[in-house]
């Protein structure tokens, strides 16, 4: 079975060995305040800076999910209100979670702008040019959900103050861990707000990670596997080129269209098309039958999501997927 599901998604095959190593070598039994464990956290953070080209003055912490990051932004970084210009299901969910924690009193005093860089539900993205426009127009903090693009495409990190992603998408790992990147300005804001009521208050997280520790017993297995995957992957500039080439190939394939008239790209505007999640639209019946036929052929297509649940399927364009697997899917679609 090969999978193009956009999360949880295909994990790097090497992860099986990394998991076995973590257990055989007793890494999962290390006390999380021990030197051995702190070394793994330190090396993981060093590798994140190196492989993803994250600015040296941006801080990195590891938490358990992107959903947790939504709440951290609301509780620890939002003084008045957050703004959520969204275009899909994940952006909407983020706004709902944020407003439960920080009900907006006056949106004209919004002090955090929350952007979903890659909207996994419908295959759109906010590219770096658009993000730089937001940066020029909005003077306060910008927080970016990059769950389905971080480690898949390159970012200009300086265009936002907070970036986060869980690892079950472009990192090619099992779910249960998230990377939270925050700028010196974000830390300063957290200090001004001074919110320290939660186990995952950003100030408490920061204090722990400055010692390469975590507030609570962390997912040590996942942190170790992340370290090993980061050792294995190419620098983000290389991965970025590969992802964008594959995305261009996918869009050319569907524009031709090599797959009959029953299906079309959900997103017509080329500028907003995602590089990492491709959404294909069709009638409910057509979508249902192509997903079933793919399954028969040993290929899992991603279901639609949210408003597009029954009228689209999605194809993950994540780095762990091989050229051979992409070839197999293209062949299946051509002959469908
Ligand atoms: C998958 C996804 C999430 C949710 O991630 P969790 O790890 O389940 O919290 C959030 N935002 C986007 C854009 C996603 O694709």
Strand order, biggest sheet? Answer: 2-9-8-7-4-3
List ligands, each type once.
Answer: pyridoxal-5'-phosphate
Instruction: Tell me the overall shape.
Output: globular
What is the rounded Rg?
A: 20 Å
As residue ranges, the low-confidence spans are none
What is the CATH level 1 assignment of the largest domain? Alpha Beta
Q: What class do helices, strands and sheet pairing give? A: alpha/beta
The CATH architecture of the largest domain can be given as: 3-Layer(aba) Sandwich
Secondary-structure element order, N to C? EHHEHEHEEEHEEEHHHHEEHEEEH
- Please bin the fraction of helical residues: 40-55%
Summarize the main sheet.
Answer: 6 strands, mixed
CATH superfamily of the largest domain: Type I PLP-dependent aspartate aminotransferase-like (Major domain)
The number of helical elements comes to 11
Whole-number average pLDDT? Answer: 97
CATH fold node name of the largest domain: Aspartate Aminotransferase, domain 2
- How many separate domains? 2
Distance between the termini: 18 Å
Counting DSSP E segments of at least 2 residues, the number of strands comes to: 14
Per DSSP, what share of the residues sits in E-state strands of 2 or more residues?
5-15%
């Amino acid at each position: 079975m090969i999978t193009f599901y956009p999360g949880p998604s295909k994990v790097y095959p090497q992860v099986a060995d990394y998991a076995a190593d973590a257990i055989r070598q007793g890494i999962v039994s290390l006390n999380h305040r021990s030197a051995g464990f702190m070394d793994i956290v330190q090396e993981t953070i060093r590798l994140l800076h190196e492989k993803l080209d994250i600015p040296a003055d941006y801080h990195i912490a590891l938490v358990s999910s992107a959903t947790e990051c939504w709440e951290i932004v609301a509780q620890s970084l939002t003084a008045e209100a957050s703004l959520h210009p969204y275009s899909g299901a994940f952006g909407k969910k983020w706004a709902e979670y944020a407003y439960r924690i920080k009900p907006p009193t006056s949106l004209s005093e919004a002090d955090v702008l929350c952007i979903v860089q890659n909207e996994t539900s419908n295959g759109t993205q906010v590219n770096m040019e658009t993000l730089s426009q937001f940066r020029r127009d909005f003077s306060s903090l910008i927080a970016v959900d990059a769950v389905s693009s971080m480690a898949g495409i390159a970012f200009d990190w300086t265009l936002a103050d907070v970036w986060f992603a869980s690892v079950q998408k472009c990192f090619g790992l099992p779910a249960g861990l998230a990377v939270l990147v925050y700028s010196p300005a974000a830390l300063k804001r957290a200090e001004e707000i001074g919110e320290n009521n939660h186990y995952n208050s950003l100030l408490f997280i920061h204090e722990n990670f400055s010692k390469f520790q975590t507030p609570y017993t962390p997912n040590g297995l996942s942190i170790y596997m992340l370290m090993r995957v980061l050792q294995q992957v190419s620098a983000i500039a290389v991965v970025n080129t590969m992802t964008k080439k594959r995305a261009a190939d996918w869009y050319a394939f569907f524009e031709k269209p090599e797959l009959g008239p029953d299906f079309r790209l959900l997103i017509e505007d080329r500028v907003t098309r995602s590089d990492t999640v491709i959404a294909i639209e069709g009638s409910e019946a057509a979508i249902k039958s192509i997903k079933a036929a793919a399954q028969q052929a040993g290929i899992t297509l991603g279901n639609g999501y949210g408003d597009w649940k029954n009228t689209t399927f999605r194809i993950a364009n994540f780095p762990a997927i091989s050229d051979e697997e992409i070839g197999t899917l293209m062949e299946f679609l051509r002959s469908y």
